[in-house]
Amino acid sequence: MIRKLLHRVFKRKPSASVSASTASGTRLHIIPRKQHGISRNHISPCALKVTAELQQAGYSAFVVGGAVRDLLLGLEPKDYDVATNATPEDVRAVFRRSRIIGRRFRLVHVMCGAETVEVSTFRGNSSPDEDEGAAAKKHADEHGRLLRDNVFGSQEEDAVRRDFTVNALFYDPANEEIWDYLNGYDDIKAKRLRIIGDPLLRYREDPVRMLRAVRLAAKLEMQVDAASAAPIGDLAPLLRNVPPSRLFDEMLKLLLSGHALACVVDLRARGLHHGLLPMLDVILEQPLGERFITLALKNTDERVRQEKPVSPGFLFAALLWHEVLAQWNSRQAAGEKPMLALQQAMDDVLAVQDKELAIPRRYDAIMQEIWVMQPRFLGRGGRRPFRLLEHPRFRAAYDFMLLRCESGEMDAELGQWWETFQRVSAGEREAMLLKDEVPKKRRKRRRRPEAVTDAGASPDSSDADAVIS
Ligand code: ATP
Ligand code: MG
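That is the input. Now the predicted structure with adenosine-5'-triphosphate docked in place:
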């Protein structure tokens, strides 16, 4: 309707952007293809089908959010979201292969082949400043965090309730126009990440937006504008009120964004890491720990950018390693046997993480396997290296050990030995075995456990195989 009105007012199809004031005072700019350059051929087939069929059924439907932003920046969208004035039930009625998901915030997933497009109904935002009374209290907790945002609204309201102006652009594939209520288009061109509305209020409503600011600024190579950045340091403690599972999801996105290192550096600079990643508090302050994590993140970033698979379990194992190492050492110093001390240290670290960051338990097994295999790399005599090579998690544990070498925690020679050992022929392998490391029978006599140095547990510990097998 607004478009028709605008076209009538301007009496032409726009080749330059047209704009008009909206009822609530924002200014709608309609930007034609000639100006923004995105043709409908850039849009995924499923998103095209979804918008076209919704429009045919009489609804308005736009590609929205991250996909429009990424296309304008010349990046490939990860996924497509569609926003419409059709209710979830209406959408469900248009597409046979679709289902409604979410209870609090109901969305529809429409499937076409292997692709899924997420369709959301325009929503309004019940900002606590609009009404200081009962209505506001119902929707927010005592810190202003929104508990509900499932009220349907107009397209303009839907733009305003989004987080950053660059995420609030609507693209209509039918006429290839971009609808921009909040000057997001100019912000994209200026590489400026600007939160919509009053920054203080918007971070209070949803503190996760502070993490999104850090992640998106790194990913999009944008500057967070001064007003949007200013309150972040002071509001960082609000992250404690966010449900741990939500925090985990956002941290996982950040760590797998291909810009994890830049993000973690920025999180620290803005004071957002305290309490968020408890291990970062301590570890980034120790030279070896900092070097190890930096390498692990750099490594992950490279893999993501080369589109190689990355394992979150591996990454968490790396992030928590120095915590495990510290506890392992202190337990051994207190007289515990190396492998039992390691097992106990792992259990303790995982129990704390489970509470604070809610790393789901499904990652525990891979983390434990990687950690528990570390002392076994020191056994380079007898059959032990051969047995280790056959372990289904050898590759992950080996990569992990290389990181330890690279960070200076272990002697580089160990990494080189294993690299060669994998590469050479069977005969050469036999020749490489360290002669002074003949496998020892399990001894009855109790040896005084030695404290683990940075080099790890005693290599000939028969406990190692006992615990692992
Ligand atoms: P990417 O998918 O590249 O990580 P994105 O911006 O698409 O980035 P999504 O989490 O997929 O991120 O969110 C889709 C859209 O939903 C965003 O572009 C934004 O408009 C809106 N959005 C997401 N999170 C929030 C939030 N915390 N507050 C307000 N709006 C949000
Ligand atoms: Mg997205």
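The mean pLDDT is 85.
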